[in-house]
Structure formats: structure tokens, C-alpha cells
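Hi F.,

I've been meaning to write this up properly since the lab meeting, where we talked about keeping a consistent format for the predictions we share between groups. The idea is simple: the sequence comes first, exactly as it goes in, then the C-alpha cells exactly as they come out, then a line or two of notes. No screenshots and no reformatting. I'm using this chain as the first example so we have something concrete to point to.
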Amino acid sequence: MSFGVLCQTSKELANVLDSGDDLKELLTVTESGKNGIEQMEQRQLKVKRLQQALAKLGEEEGELSSIRLQENKENNEVISNLGKEKYSQVEGIEKLNAALGSLENSMREIDLESSKLRKEKAGIQHQASDALPKTKYSFSLYSNVTRLRWDYDTNDDKLQGFVTSLRDVRPFSLNLKEHSSHFIANYLWDVIASAKNSQA
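Output, unedited:
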């Protein structure tokens, strides 16, 4: 009940008391005044509850603002970290791309070198296939003329074998580290000559 209604009610009460009307009217006015006061108290209670609810909403809004600020701060940190990680990943990808390019260049060079070596190998094999029969023939010819036979089972630092004649076998064994190639050649020719002379 508003202040104006309360004033109106009190004026009516004063009029009734002044006029001397009957008691019923007085009770009616008193009852309506009571009702008005009760309504006013209820309204005040509602206003108080609304004020409390508004205060609580204000507190909750403050808490929500604080939470939002914290979340924004955390989100900004996450975004910053993701940006750094992205930058790091981009750098890593660039390094990998550079390494890949280098490897591709190396592979091209290796392929070219491999192709070149295959051609050289084919050329050498061709030369060897041409030279091998000639070498075998020359070896056979020299072996038959000189009657020199090599021992292939000796150490690498020894030259060993024998020279044959119709009546004689003359072995030889020379250390390659102790003798010069000139001495070895002369020695072998001497052994061959002595084997030939023993035939006569």
C-alpha cells in the first residue's frame, strides 16, 4: 500500500470519527487499513527479497567476471603457447624440407655417378672380354716356351714355382721383399737357361 492510500485511509477514518457514523463503517475502514498495512508489509518483504536477489546476482556476476577474466588469461596463454609451437613446427618443417632437397640433390648426383660407373664397368668388361683371350694365349705361349710353372698357393710376399726340362725340374723360391724385380727377372732367366742347357 502506498503512502497516498494510507493518507486517504486515515482521512476517511477521521471523517468517520467526526461524523459519528456507525461502528460498522469504522470497522470497515479499520479493516481496510489493516489490509493496506499487510499489503504494504508484503510489498516491503518482496522488495527486500528482490534487493537480496539483486545483491546475490551482483555477487554471482562478479564471480563470473572473475572466472571469465581467468579463463581469458588461460586462453591467451594457450594461444600464445600454440603460436610458439606452430612457429617451432614451421621451422622444423622448413629444416626437413631443406634436408629433403639436399637428399634429393645427393640422390641425383649418386644416380649420375652410378650411371657413369655402370658405363665404365661395361667398357671395362668389354675390354676385358677382348683382352682375356689374348692374355690367355700369351700366358700359354710363354709357359710353353719357357716351361715355367707357377705355384699359386704361396704367400703374397713369395714367388715360387719350377722350370721343367726333359731331364730336369728346377724349383725356385724368392722373397719379393728381399729382392728387386730386376734381380728376380734375371734370376728366372738364368734358371730357364740352365734348364735348357741341361737338355743338350
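Notes:
The chain has a mean pLDDT of 82.
The helical segments are 3-19, 23-146, 181-199.

If this format works for you, I'll send the rest the same way.

G.
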